[in-house]
Write a structure and sequence with these properties.
Elements (H helix, E strand, L loop, with lengths): L13 E3 L2 E2 H22 L4 H20 L1 E2 L2 E2 H13 L23 H37 L8 H7 L4
Antiparallel strand pairs: 1-2, 3-4
Helix pairs in contact: 1-2
Length: about 160
């Protein structure tokens, strides 16, 4: 029996109509909040008073559920904007410092960044140790060359040494 395998496996599944589970939850919460505002405010006030808060909540709900800019959801866009405004705008270059910027959008753990810095340090130490070992081997090789061992004769010397019969 053959099954149809979807081409885009990272795309979220549609639950109701064109709504994904995330969108359905957001729209449900927003609609519930709008209805609650309507029920509370419409009993005491005219339409000019209760309509703006209800419309505002509906617009914010729609933005959180459906708005995407450069394939970035609205909530991540707000977090990126807040991060941009809160972080310093001037960057200062410092030699040999691994400038790591922790982002609210990154899924990286802070301990992993510290381990990465440690790996860079150990990489430099490893290169220094390799250079030291290389210098020691070179020094030993020069000592060994002074006590040269007899070498194998070349083919020409072999030919000359063979007795004629």
């Amino acid at each position: 029996m053959q099954f149809k395998v979807p081409q885009d496996v990272l795309r979220p599944d549609k639950i109701v109509g064109f709504l994904t589970l995330r969108q359905l939850v957001i729209v449900g919460l927003g609609a519930g909040l709008c209805y609650s505002l309507y029920m509370i405010l419409s009993k005491q006030y005219l339409i000019e008073i209760w309509l703006p808060p209800v419309v505002l909540v509906a617009l914010v709900t729609g933005a959180f559920a459906f708005f995407r800019y450069h394939d970035l959801p609205f909530e991540k866009m707000i977090l990126a904007f807040a991060e941009y405004k809160l972080n310093p705008q001037v960057r200062v270059w410092q030699k040999m410092h691994g400038d790591t910027v922790l982002s609210v959008l990154a899924d990286v753990n802070r301990h992993e960044i510290i381990k990465t810095k440690e790996k860079v340090v150990t990489e430099l130490e490893r290169r220094k140790k390799l250079e030291e070992v290389s210098n020691i081997v070179d020094a030993q090789a020069t000592k060994f060359k002074s006590h040269e061992l007899p070498q194998d004769p070349t083919p020409e010397q072999n030919f000359q040494q063979t007795p004629k019969q």
